[in-house]
Amino acid sequence: MFNNLRARPLAFFHTLPMPCPYLPGKTERRLIADISSRRGQHAHDSLAKAGFRRTQHLTYRPACPGCNACHPVRVRTGDFHWSRTFRKLLKRNADLTARPVQAIATREQYALFHAYQQGRHGDGEMAMMDFADYAEMIERSPIETYLIEYRDAAGRLMAIMLVDEQADGLSAVYSYFDTEDPTRGFGTFMVLDLIQRANARALNYVYLGYWIPDCRKMAYKTKYRPYELLTSKGWVEA
């Protein structure tokens, strides 16, 4: 049995200031903790509810000087509004087979990941990731994490989402996909599929990370309704 009193306490650190990747002229700084320990694993759910996100063995949340533009956002699954547009998108991708698999990196996945980065984020740091870097991102997790692979009728890998399990929901950690057919709407489709999966398991939320009102790249996170934002008063419906 886990003994909370004997476990080493979590240590939190601030990262060094660096240019914000989302808002020009702003400085990014993060509050981070290593959750590799048993205490860290047990604390993950509480930290997620407090607005932290996981990357590999670390959990973090923005702690930027003079800025609070990042708002943790989660979608409610039980009363989610299935708009006509969302239903059409599900139907458009009905030919895909979705399969949860272990979070183990493969060359096939990396080829799709690399093509996605070159096509969508060629000037970003992730575009420079090699297979070893990719494997670290996928496999290094101290909590329950898995991939959902989406394949077409011919068995071709078309999209992938990396998912964390939480006590009250599922967290969309990262996703990438084939960019050649924009009508597929893979990014939106995978979030909708995750909402369906969470709802089928009576999980209340899908966590989408941070929403930044002034960042166009983040605008998509508020089209899933109802959604909640984490404020000084707790999680509130926006």
**In which order are the strands of the major sheet placed?**
8-9-10-11-12-7-13-14
> Which assembly state applies to the chains in this document?
single chain
Order of helices and strands: EEEEHEEEHEHHEEEHEEE
Distance between the termini: 40 Å
Percentage of residues in DSSP E strands = 25-35%
Task: Write down the Rg.
Answer: 18 Å
Beta strand count = 14
Q: How much is the average pLDDT?
A: 93
- Helical content stands at 10-25%
Point out poorly predicted stretches.
none
**Major β-sheet, in short?**
8 strands, mixed
Word description of this protein:
With 238 residues, the chain is α+β, with helices and mostly antiparallel strands. It contains five helices and 14 strands. The model has no long low-confidence stretch (mean pLDDT 93). Strands 8-9-10-11-12-7-13-14 form an eight-stranded mixed beta sheet. The chain has a four-stranded antiparallel beta sheet with strand order 1-4-6-5, with helices on one face. The protein has a two-stranded antiparallel sheet with strand order 2-3.
